[in-house]
Amino acid sequence: MALLNADLHCHSTVSDGTLDPEALAARAHANGVELWALTDHDEVGGQHRAAAAARALGLPYLCGVEISVTFAGLTVHIVGLGIDPDDPQLLHGLAQTRGGRERRARAMAEQLAAVGIRGAFEGALQYVGNPELISRTHFARYLVETGVCSDTHEVFRRFLTEGKPGFVEHQWAKLGDAVRWIREAGGVAVIAHPARYAHPNPTQEYALFAEFKAHGGQAVEVVTGSHSNAEMVRYADLALEFGLAASRGSDFHSPTESHCDLGALPYLDGRLTPVWELLTDRVLH
Ligand code: AMP
Ligand code: MN
Ligand code: MN
Ligand code: MN
Protein backbone atom coordinates (compact mmCIF):
# COMPACT_ATOMS: atom_id res chain seq x y z
CA MET A 1 0.00 0.00 0.00
CA ALA A 2 2.92 2.41 0.60
CA LEU A 3 4.10 1.84 -2.98
CA LEU A 4 1.14 3.60 -4.56
CA ASN A 5 1.60 6.60 -6.86
CA ALA A 6 -0.98 8.69 -5.05
CA ASP A 7 -1.02 12.45 -5.68
CA LEU A 8 -3.43 14.01 -3.18
CA HIS A 9 -2.65 17.74 -3.48
CA CYS A 10 -2.87 20.04 -6.52
CA HIS A 11 -4.63 23.16 -7.81
CA SER A 12 -6.79 24.03 -10.84
CA THR A 13 -8.08 27.28 -12.37
CA VAL A 14 -10.84 27.09 -9.74
CA SER A 15 -8.19 28.42 -7.30
CA ASP A 16 -4.62 29.39 -8.25
CA GLY A 17 -3.58 26.67 -10.71
CA THR A 18 -3.23 27.31 -14.44
CA LEU A 19 -4.83 24.06 -15.75
CA ASP A 20 -8.53 23.27 -15.58
CA PRO A 21 -9.72 20.12 -13.74
CA GLU A 22 -9.97 18.08 -16.97
CA ALA A 23 -6.43 18.98 -18.06
CA LEU A 24 -5.11 18.10 -14.59
CA ALA A 25 -6.86 14.71 -14.65
CA ALA A 26 -5.30 13.97 -18.06
CA ARG A 27 -1.85 15.04 -16.85
CA ALA A 28 -2.11 12.97 -13.64
CA HIS A 29 -3.17 9.92 -15.65
CA ALA A 30 -0.39 10.42 -18.23
CA ASN A 31 2.17 10.73 -15.41
CA GLY A 32 1.15 7.37 -13.91
CA VAL A 33 -0.82 8.64 -10.91
CA GLU A 34 -2.86 5.76 -9.43
CA LEU A 35 -4.99 7.73 -6.93
CA TRP A 36 -5.68 11.43 -7.41
CA ALA A 37 -7.26 14.36 -5.52
CA LEU A 38 -7.77 17.97 -6.63
CA THR A 39 -7.43 20.26 -3.58
CA ASP A 40 -8.25 23.84 -4.55
CA HIS A 41 -7.81 26.57 -1.93
CA ASP A 42 -11.01 27.21 0.07
CA GLU A 43 -13.19 26.02 -2.81
CA VAL A 44 -14.82 22.79 -4.01
CA GLY A 45 -16.28 24.19 -7.25
CA GLY A 46 -14.03 21.92 -9.37
CA GLN A 47 -14.81 18.64 -7.60
CA HIS A 48 -17.59 17.28 -9.81
CA ARG A 49 -15.59 18.11 -12.97
CA ALA A 50 -12.42 16.48 -11.57
CA ALA A 51 -14.31 13.36 -10.45
CA ALA A 52 -16.02 12.98 -13.84
CA ALA A 53 -12.75 13.46 -15.74
CA ALA A 54 -10.96 10.94 -13.50
CA ARG A 55 -13.77 8.40 -13.92
CA ALA A 56 -13.61 8.71 -17.73
CA LEU A 57 -9.87 7.91 -17.53
CA GLY A 58 -10.30 5.01 -15.07
CA LEU A 59 -8.30 7.00 -12.47
CA PRO A 60 -9.43 6.43 -8.83
CA TYR A 61 -10.34 9.79 -7.24
CA LEU A 62 -10.81 11.35 -3.79
CA CYS A 63 -12.66 14.67 -3.47
CA GLY A 64 -10.44 17.26 -1.83
CA VAL A 65 -9.93 20.82 -0.61
CA GLU A 66 -7.13 22.89 1.01
CA ILE A 67 -8.45 25.19 3.73
CA SER A 68 -6.57 28.35 4.83
CA VAL A 69 -6.34 28.50 8.64
CA THR A 70 -4.91 31.03 11.08
CA PHE A 71 -3.12 29.25 13.95
CA ALA A 72 -1.19 31.23 16.59
CA GLY A 73 -0.80 34.13 14.17
CA LEU A 74 0.49 32.01 11.28
CA THR A 75 -1.29 30.86 8.12
CA VAL A 76 -1.45 27.06 8.05
CA HIS A 77 -3.08 24.94 5.34
CA ILE A 78 -5.29 21.95 6.15
CA VAL A 79 -6.11 19.54 3.33
CA GLY A 80 -9.39 17.62 3.47
CA LEU A 81 -9.55 14.29 1.58
CA GLY A 82 -12.57 12.09 0.86
CA ILE A 83 -15.01 14.93 1.60
CA ASP A 84 -18.54 15.16 0.26
CA PRO A 85 -18.25 18.30 -1.93
CA ASP A 86 -21.98 19.02 -1.47
CA ASP A 87 -21.93 19.04 2.34
CA PRO A 88 -23.81 22.24 3.39
CA GLN A 89 -21.68 23.01 6.49
CA LEU A 90 -18.45 22.62 4.50
CA LEU A 91 -19.79 24.84 1.69
CA HIS A 92 -20.84 27.51 4.18
CA GLY A 93 -17.49 27.41 6.01
CA LEU A 94 -15.52 27.67 2.75
CA ALA A 95 -17.65 30.60 1.54
CA GLN A 96 -16.91 32.39 4.83
CA THR A 97 -13.19 31.63 4.50
CA ARG A 98 -13.09 33.04 0.94
CA GLY A 99 -15.13 36.08 1.95
CA GLY A 100 -12.40 38.61 2.73
CA ARG A 101 -10.19 37.86 -0.29
CA GLU A 102 -11.32 40.72 -2.51
CA ARG A 103 -10.87 43.35 0.23
CA ARG A 104 -7.46 41.90 1.05
CA ALA A 105 -6.47 41.99 -2.64
CA ARG A 106 -7.43 45.67 -2.91
CA ALA A 107 -5.31 46.45 0.17
CA MET A 108 -2.39 44.49 -1.33
CA ALA A 109 -2.69 46.51 -4.55
CA GLU A 110 -2.65 49.78 -2.56
CA GLN A 111 0.62 48.78 -0.88
CA LEU A 112 2.12 47.82 -4.24
CA ALA A 113 1.00 51.16 -5.73
CA ALA A 114 2.81 52.91 -2.89
CA VAL A 115 6.09 51.34 -4.10
CA GLY A 116 5.36 52.29 -7.72
CA ILE A 117 3.58 49.16 -9.01
CA ARG A 118 0.29 50.40 -10.42
CA GLY A 119 -2.83 48.55 -11.52
CA ALA A 120 -2.00 45.35 -9.63
CA PHE A 121 -5.58 44.59 -8.59
CA GLU A 122 -6.90 44.75 -12.16
CA GLY A 123 -3.72 43.07 -13.39
CA ALA A 124 -4.04 40.13 -10.99
CA LEU A 125 -7.72 39.77 -11.87
CA GLN A 126 -6.76 38.92 -15.47
CA TYR A 127 -5.32 35.63 -14.17
CA VAL A 128 -8.23 34.76 -11.90
CA GLY A 129 -10.45 31.86 -13.00
CA ASN A 130 -12.86 32.18 -10.05
CA PRO A 131 -13.78 35.74 -8.99
CA GLU A 132 -14.16 34.62 -5.33
CA LEU A 133 -10.65 33.26 -5.24
CA ILE A 134 -8.15 36.03 -5.93
CA SER A 135 -4.85 34.94 -4.35
CA ARG A 136 -1.28 36.08 -3.97
CA THR A 137 -0.37 33.69 -6.82
CA HIS A 138 -2.43 35.82 -9.24
CA PHE A 139 -0.53 38.95 -8.14
CA ALA A 140 2.71 37.04 -8.59
CA ARG A 141 1.78 36.17 -12.19
CA TYR A 142 1.00 39.82 -12.92
CA LEU A 143 4.37 40.97 -11.49
CA VAL A 144 6.19 38.41 -13.63
CA GLU A 145 4.18 39.28 -16.77
CA THR A 146 4.94 43.00 -16.36
CA GLY A 147 8.68 42.33 -15.86
CA VAL A 148 8.87 43.50 -12.22
CA CYS A 149 10.24 40.04 -11.29
CA SER A 150 11.61 37.18 -13.36
CA ASP A 151 9.64 34.35 -11.70
CA THR A 152 6.94 33.83 -9.09
CA HIS A 153 9.44 32.72 -6.43
CA GLU A 154 11.23 36.07 -6.76
CA VAL A 155 7.89 37.83 -6.31
CA PHE A 156 7.33 36.07 -2.98
CA ARG A 157 10.89 36.86 -1.88
CA ARG A 158 10.56 40.59 -2.64
CA PHE A 159 6.81 41.19 -2.21
CA LEU A 160 3.62 39.71 -0.75
CA THR A 161 5.27 38.04 2.29
CA GLU A 162 5.49 39.23 5.88
CA GLY A 163 7.41 42.50 6.15
CA LYS A 164 7.43 43.10 2.36
CA PRO A 165 5.25 45.46 0.28
CA GLY A 166 1.96 43.82 -0.67
CA PHE A 167 1.64 41.70 2.50
CA VAL A 168 -1.71 42.13 4.21
CA GLU A 169 -2.42 40.33 7.46
CA HIS A 170 -5.52 38.17 7.14
CA GLN A 171 -7.74 36.15 9.49
CA TRP A 172 -8.53 32.75 7.93
CA ALA A 173 -10.62 29.89 9.39
CA LYS A 174 -9.96 28.50 12.87
CA LEU A 175 -8.07 25.19 13.04
CA GLY A 176 -10.86 23.43 14.95
CA ASP A 177 -13.53 24.66 12.51
CA ALA A 178 -11.60 23.54 9.42
CA VAL A 179 -11.00 20.06 10.88
CA ARG A 180 -14.65 19.76 11.92
CA TRP A 181 -16.01 20.83 8.49
CA ILE A 182 -13.79 18.20 6.85
CA ARG A 183 -14.65 15.40 9.27
CA GLU A 184 -18.38 16.10 9.27
CA ALA A 185 -18.28 16.08 5.45
CA GLY A 186 -16.97 12.48 5.71
CA GLY A 187 -13.32 13.33 5.10
CA VAL A 188 -9.91 13.05 6.74
CA ALA A 189 -8.02 16.23 7.74
CA VAL A 190 -4.31 16.49 6.81
CA ILE A 191 -1.70 19.09 7.85
CA ALA A 192 -0.38 20.33 4.48
CA HIS A 193 3.37 20.87 3.77
CA PRO A 194 4.33 21.19 7.49
CA ALA A 195 7.90 22.36 6.79
CA ARG A 196 6.62 25.57 5.16
CA TYR A 197 5.42 27.28 8.37
CA ALA A 198 7.67 29.78 10.10
CA HIS A 199 6.87 28.66 13.66
CA PRO A 200 8.79 30.92 16.08
CA ASN A 201 9.95 27.84 18.04
CA PRO A 202 9.58 24.03 18.07
CA THR A 203 7.00 24.24 20.87
CA GLN A 204 4.57 26.00 18.56
CA GLU A 205 4.92 23.25 15.96
CA TYR A 206 4.19 20.65 18.64
CA ALA A 207 1.17 22.72 19.68
CA LEU A 208 -0.09 22.69 16.07
CA PHE A 209 0.24 18.90 15.86
CA ALA A 210 -1.28 18.34 19.33
CA GLU A 211 -4.25 20.68 18.78
CA PHE A 212 -4.83 19.32 15.28
CA LYS A 213 -4.96 15.79 16.69
CA ALA A 214 -7.20 16.86 19.59
CA HIS A 215 -9.68 18.36 17.09
CA GLY A 216 -9.81 15.02 15.23
CA GLY A 217 -7.13 15.59 12.57
CA GLN A 218 -5.73 12.27 11.36
CA ALA A 219 -2.85 12.80 8.90
CA VAL A 220 0.11 14.92 7.82
CA GLU A 221 1.74 15.43 4.41
CA VAL A 222 5.12 13.78 4.68
CA VAL A 223 5.93 13.62 0.95
CA THR A 224 5.17 16.90 -0.83
CA GLY A 225 6.76 18.92 -3.64
CA SER A 226 8.32 21.50 -1.31
CA HIS A 227 9.92 19.07 1.21
CA SER A 228 13.62 18.23 1.12
CA ASN A 229 14.70 14.65 1.84
CA ALA A 230 15.60 15.65 5.39
CA GLU A 231 12.15 17.24 5.87
CA MET A 232 10.45 14.05 4.64
CA VAL A 233 12.39 12.06 7.26
CA ARG A 234 11.62 14.60 9.98
CA TYR A 235 7.84 14.55 9.29
CA ALA A 236 7.76 10.77 8.91
CA ASP A 237 9.18 10.61 12.45
CA LEU A 238 6.68 13.21 13.69
CA ALA A 239 3.77 11.32 12.05
CA LEU A 240 4.84 8.19 13.95
CA GLU A 241 5.30 10.12 17.20
CA PHE A 242 1.81 11.66 16.97
CA GLY A 243 0.08 8.55 15.59
CA LEU A 244 -0.90 10.33 12.37
CA ALA A 245 -1.30 8.74 8.95
CA ALA A 246 0.85 10.10 6.11
CA SER A 247 -0.13 11.77 2.85
CA ARG A 248 1.67 12.35 -0.44
CA GLY A 249 0.98 15.18 -2.90
CA SER A 250 2.89 17.35 -5.35
CA ASP A 251 1.05 20.66 -4.67
CA PHE A 252 1.24 21.11 -8.46
CA HIS A 253 -0.02 24.53 -9.69
CA SER A 254 1.36 24.98 -13.22
CA PRO A 255 3.62 23.30 -15.81
CA THR A 256 5.84 26.40 -15.92
CA GLU A 257 5.86 27.47 -12.24
CA SER A 258 5.87 24.17 -10.30
CA HIS A 259 9.14 22.32 -9.92
CA CYS A 260 7.35 19.09 -8.93
CA ASP A 261 5.02 17.58 -11.53
CA LEU A 262 1.91 15.52 -10.75
CA GLY A 263 2.93 12.08 -9.47
CA ALA A 264 6.67 12.84 -9.59
CA LEU A 265 7.37 12.19 -5.90
CA PRO A 266 9.21 9.60 -3.77
CA TYR A 267 7.06 6.82 -2.30
CA LEU A 268 5.97 6.95 1.32
CA ASP A 269 8.26 5.33 3.88
CA GLY A 270 6.98 1.77 4.54
CA ARG A 271 6.83 2.45 8.32
CA LEU A 272 3.97 4.93 7.80
CA THR A 273 0.22 4.36 7.54
CA PRO A 274 -0.80 5.80 4.15
CA VAL A 275 -3.76 8.18 4.51
CA TRP A 276 -5.55 6.28 1.72
CA GLU A 277 -5.85 3.26 4.05
CA LEU A 278 -8.31 5.41 6.07
CA LEU A 279 -10.24 6.37 2.94
CA THR A 280 -10.89 3.14 1.02
CA ASP A 281 -14.68 3.64 1.17
CA ARG A 282 -14.39 7.27 -0.05
CA VAL A 283 -12.52 6.51 -3.31
CA LEU A 284 -14.56 7.15 -6.47
CA HIS A 285 -14.02 4.67 -9.32
P1 AMP B 1 -2.98 33.14 -0.60
O1 AMP B 1 -3.92 32.01 -0.29
O2 AMP B 1 -3.64 34.22 -1.42
O3 AMP B 1 -2.28 33.68 0.61
O4 AMP B 1 -1.86 32.55 -1.57
C1 AMP B 1 -1.08 31.47 -1.14
C2 AMP B 1 -0.46 30.79 -2.35
O5 AMP B 1 0.67 31.52 -2.78
C3 AMP B 1 0.09 29.42 -2.03
O6 AMP B 1 -0.91 28.45 -2.11
C4 AMP B 1 1.10 29.23 -3.12
O7 AMP B 1 0.45 28.81 -4.31
C5 AMP B 1 1.63 30.63 -3.34
N1 AMP B 1 2.92 30.85 -2.65
C6 AMP B 1 3.11 31.16 -1.36
N2 AMP B 1 4.42 31.29 -1.10
C7 AMP B 1 5.08 31.07 -2.28
C8 AMP B 1 6.44 31.07 -2.69
N3 AMP B 1 7.43 31.34 -1.82
N4 AMP B 1 6.72 30.79 -3.98
C9 AMP B 1 5.74 30.53 -4.88
N5 AMP B 1 4.44 30.51 -4.55
C10 AMP B 1 4.11 30.77 -3.26
MN1 MN C 1 -1.59 27.91 -4.13
MN1 MN D 1 -0.70 25.23 0.70
MN1 MN E 1 -1.62 23.72 -2.16
UniProtKB/TrEMBL annotation:
CDD domains: PHP_HisPPase_AMP (cd07438). SUPFAM superfamilies: PHP domain-like. Keywords: Hydrolase. InterPro entries: 35NBP, PHP_dom, PHP_domain, Pol/His_phosphatase_N, Pol/histidinol_Pase-like. SMART domains: POLIIIAc. It holds the Pfam family PHP. Gene3D superfamilies: 1.10.150.650, Metal-dependent hydrolases. Its EC number is 3.1.3.97. It comes from the Bacteria. GO terms for molecular function: 3',5'-nucleotide bisphosphate phosphatase activity; 5'-3' DNA exonuclease activity; 5'-3' RNA exonuclease activity. Residues 6-71 form the Polymerase/histidinol phosphatase N-terminal domain. This is 3',5'-nucleoside bisphosphate phosphatase. It comes from Tepidimonas ignava.
